[in-house]
Design a protein that fits this description.
Blueprint: H1 2-16, H2 19-40, H3 50-60, H4 63-84, H5 90-142, E1 145-147, H6 153-166, H7 176-192, E2 194-198, E3 204-216, E4 219-227, E5 237-244, H8 253-264, E6 270-274, H9 279-286, E7 290-295, E8 298-303
Helix pairs in contact: 2-3, 2-4, 3-4, 3-5, 4-5, 6-7
């Protein structure tokens, strides 16, 4: 355990070291190995340990510094052989130098490839961790979605009012009289599962209505209203309204609510009215909604 901890500390120090420190350390290491090699005489060779300096430079520094490290290690190894073992002819010295350079160069190449593999693996690992965190957050948010009950109506009205302040809904929702009418309408819709609505081609009709809410820490964080389009005759369902509490915005709750709508009613034709260029429009386009028409400043988006 202590050995593993020592290696971790060494690795942390090497990662924190500056390029100049790495280059100086590699040069000192090559010099120290050369002196040890010469001092040990012809019976023991430490030439293999030059690879440590080469690999260190190849891992942390660029190709220029790596080439210098390979050259330095090769010269040191050949000089040791020349001084302590035998005096070769110039052609043999050149051959030994090239052979050493090829060996250390291969080690540098393997170290460089290992670094690339390590970096790719680290990127994939970070990406996987981010995806895992997003998935855990998505599942946690999905678990907060339930059908609305009568006790939720005041909080739904408050979220609608916040949407009016932000410009997401008609400004009339901020009027007390209009809010009272909405409260009665929403309560009736939750109880009866049906509501009277204006249809796009004119007139009114009774359509199915459903309210879904997200409750986080005992507080209503979001709601959506889902309506039919043509009584009980058609298979369409419209995401008529979606509001997220200001404190919960930016956490992906709106996206989770839209996903819930698409999944819950996936066997139906889905319809959403959205302003061009809005965040809702972007979410719909990512979920393969197509523009059908425009009405009163809104683009009618559908997915079959």
């Amino acid at each position: 355990m202590s050995i593993l901890l020592s290696f971790r500390r060494l690795g942390a120090r090497l990662r924190a070291a500056s390029p100049r420190s790495i280059a100086a350390g590699a040069a000192v290491l090559i010099a120290a190995i050369f002196l040890l090699d010469v001092g040990s005489g012809p019976t023991i060779s430490f030439g293999l340990f030059y690879t440590l300096a080469v690999v260190l430079v190849a891992w942390r520094l660029g190709p220029g510094a790596t080439a210098l490290a390979v050259l330095g290690a090769s010269v040191a190894r050949v000089a040791d052989f020349y001084l302590t073992r035998h005096h070769d002819s110039p052609p043999m010295l050149v051959y030994d130098l090239l052979q050493s350079a090829a060996g250390y160069g291969l080690a540098a190449l393997l170290a460089w490839q290992g670094r690339l593999l390590f970096e790719r693996t680290a990127r994939h690992a970070r990406s996987f961790q981010r995806q895992a965190r997003r998935e855990r957050r998505r599942r946690r948010l999905e678990s907060t979605i339930r059908r609305a009950v009568l006790a939720d109506v005041p909080a739904i009205i408050a979220l609608t009012n916040a949407g009016g302040e932000d410009g997401a809904f008609d400004q009339r929702v901020q009027d007390a009289v209009h809010q009272a009418a909405l409260s009665n309408s929403f309560s009736q819709g939750i109880i009866e599962g049906a509501a009277l609505r204006d249809v796009w081609h004119g007139g009114q009709t009774v359509v199915p209505i459903e309210f879904w809410v997200s409750e986080i820490d005992g507080q209503l964080a979001a709601y959506m209203m889902v309506l039919g389009l043509d009584g009980n005759k058609g298979p369409e369902r419209e995401l008529h309204a979606l509001a997220v509490a200001p404190a919960q915005r930016g956490a992906g709750l709106g996206s989770v609510m839209v996903n819930f709508f698409c999944t819950r009613y996936q066997q139906r034709r889905l319809v959403v009215a959205s302003k061009a260029g809005s965040q809702m429009m972007q979410m719909l386009q990512r979920r393969h909604f197509q523009q059908l028409s425009s009405d009163k400043g809104y683009d009618i988006m559908v997915r079959d």
